[in-house]
Design brief:
The chain is an alpha+beta fold. The protein has two domains: about 200 residues, Cytochrome Bc1 Complex, Chain A, domain 1 (2-Layer Sandwich); about 200 residues, Cytochrome Bc1 Complex, Chain A, domain 1, CATH 3.30.830. About 45% of the residues lie in helices and about 15% in strands. The chain has 17 helices and 13 strands. The protein has a six-stranded mixed sheet, sandwiched between helices. The chain has a five-stranded mixed sheet with strand order 9-13-10-12-11, with helices on both faces. Strands 4-5 form a two-stranded antiparallel ribbon. Strand 11 and strand 12 form a beta hairpin. Helix 10 packs across helix 16 and helix 11 packs antiparallel against helix 12. It is globular and about 65 Å long.
């Protein structure tokens, strides 16, 4: 026997002997969680400018920095049939404003200790910057320039459009995006919420005049709420707000575009020959905006966090998928609940069967006391953690205001979550998730997957004809 093999064998035998000699210790149960502490927002100072722009200020944290978020009630909801015109407008706004190009804007923001950005969403668009406290007044002016005085240089249009076209091509090549596009169109037919992607030729055809018109019609003081959170001089900041935004035209009120009546459940199959896995979306529109805590709790236990029932079932126990998840997509005009997963193609049907099984189990059987307490702790922990930072507080205030909620919801969250009972989970699942009401989208190798779906009782009658 070689010296190396002899040494290895000796080490293995020594390790085995040590393991046998070491006494076994019982695993100690973790300490019980302490009761949730009452939560209250820091004091808010709120006022409205003469042009209708709302302002909320909050002293928050100990670091001498300030987060500034301007939330404007416009986004893809105002695209109409011009899908991604809002995105093109937002992208071009960031290329220059107030006579400064993108690099100059970035340099100014960096000199204040932060970065300036603008994001476009379905119902709102947000400009944001996080700066040193002494730079807050100047940063407010920079945000005002970005929103009110974009340069809209013709030479930048093609660059922004080229970036969006690349993003579009990448998205359309992924099964997740293909599934999401079909799913959104099924839930919100004929509505901007259901138009996920433009055709490439449509995006290529947008003009600078269309961009300018979109900005003029949809960016204004009456649609804007400014949030200032951190450590700052209130008098100096208020004066800066009035100077920078006081002369902005009010503009139109936010758009109101109700979604069409719920079209009912559909099953959509999209072939991806040879794919090793299927992308599956299962869900439906829900009656409320998704902020009812009983339904949020039921959704979390069902599929909304790593230890959820669906995740334990089809990931941990059966190994059908790696990362299933349930989510609530809050929208002003209509919210949806969705379970999504990338599933091994040979297990697509069985995995879907188990998902429906877990939804029914939630409706038929009360969750255990341990499950209820675990969800209470999880919801309260993530909620308080999310509001602990400047950007977290500003973003939460902005999001809830867009949804028509606000301070009362935030201040009451911990108390209401802590009071949830097992029966609340069950009632919410019955109310919002009737098994017969789900739409299902499957993107995968249909030759092998469709025969599996024909054995799933909940969707087999709705399968499209071959």
């Amino acid at each position: 026997m070689t010296p190396n093999l002899t040494l290895a064998r000796t080490l293995l035998l020594s390790a085995a002997a040590l393991a046998l000699a070491t006494p076994a210790f019982a695993r100690e149960a973790p300490p019980a969680a302490a009761p949730a502490r009452p939560f209250a927002l820091p004091p808010l100072t709120e006022f409205t400018l003469a042009n209708g722009m709302k302002v909320t200020m909050a002293q928050h944290g100990a670091v001498p920095k300030v987060t500034i978020v301007a939330s404007v009630r416009t986004g893809n909801i105002d695209d109409g049939a011009n899908v991604w015109l809002a995105d093109l407008t937002g992208g071009l706004m960031q290329k220059g404003a107030g006579g400064r190009d993108a690099s100059q804007l970035a340099e100014l923001a960096a000199g204040m200790g932060g970065t300036l950005g603008l994001s476009t969403g379905l119902d709102s668009s947000s400009a944001m910057i996080d700066v040193l406290a002494e730079s807050a007044p100047a940063a407010i002016g920079l945000v005002a320039d970005l929103l009110q005085h974009p340069d809209f240089e013709a030479g930048e249009l093609d660059k922004v459009r080229a970036d969006l076209l690349r993003n579009l091509m990448v998205a359309k090549s992924t099964p997740g995006s293909v599934a999401s596009e079909a799913y959104s169109a099924a839930l919100y037919p004929g509505h901007p919420y259901g138009r996920l992607f433009p055709a490439p030729e449509q995006l290529s055809g947008y003009t600078l005049d269309q961009v300018k018109a979109f900005h003029a019609a949809n960016f204004g003081a009456a649609r804007t709420h400014l949030y200032i959170v951190g450590q700052f001089d209130p008098a100096a900041v208020r004066a800066a707000v009035e100077k920078a935004f006081g002369g902005w035209a009010s503009g139109a009120a936010p758009s109101s575009l109700p979604v069409p009546a719920d079209p009912g459940p559909k099953v959509l199959l999209i072939d991806r020959p040879g794919a090793p896995q299927s992308t599956v979306l299962i869900g439906k529109r829900v009656a409320r905006q998704g902020y009812d805590l009983d339904f949020r709790a039921a959704s979390t236990l069902l599929g909304g966090y790593f230890s959820s029932r669906i995740t334990r079932n089809i990931r941990e126990d059966k190994g059908y998928t790696y990362s299933p998840s349930a989510s609530l997509s809050q929208r002003v005009q209509g919210t949806s609940w969705t379970e999504d997963a990338d599933i091994a193609s040979e297990s697509t049907g069985p995995a879907i069967t188990e998902i429906f099984k877990e939804i029914r189990r939630m409706q038929d059987t009360l969750p255990t006391d341990a499950e209820v307490q675990g969800i209470r702790n999880y919801m309260n922990g993530t909620f308080v953690l999310g509001l602990s930072s400047r950007d977290g507080l500003a973003g939460s205030l902005a999001n809830l205001d867009v949804q028509g909620l606000g301070v009362d919801y935030l201040n009451g969250y911990v108390g209401k979550a802590s009071a949830l009972k097992a029966a609340d989970f069950q009632a919410a699942a019955k109310r919002e998730l009737p098994v017969g009401g789900f739409s299902v989208v499957v993107v995968g190798p249909l030759e092998s997957v469709r025969p599996q779906l024909e054995k799933v009782a909940e969707i087999a009658p709705k399968l499209p004809k071959k």
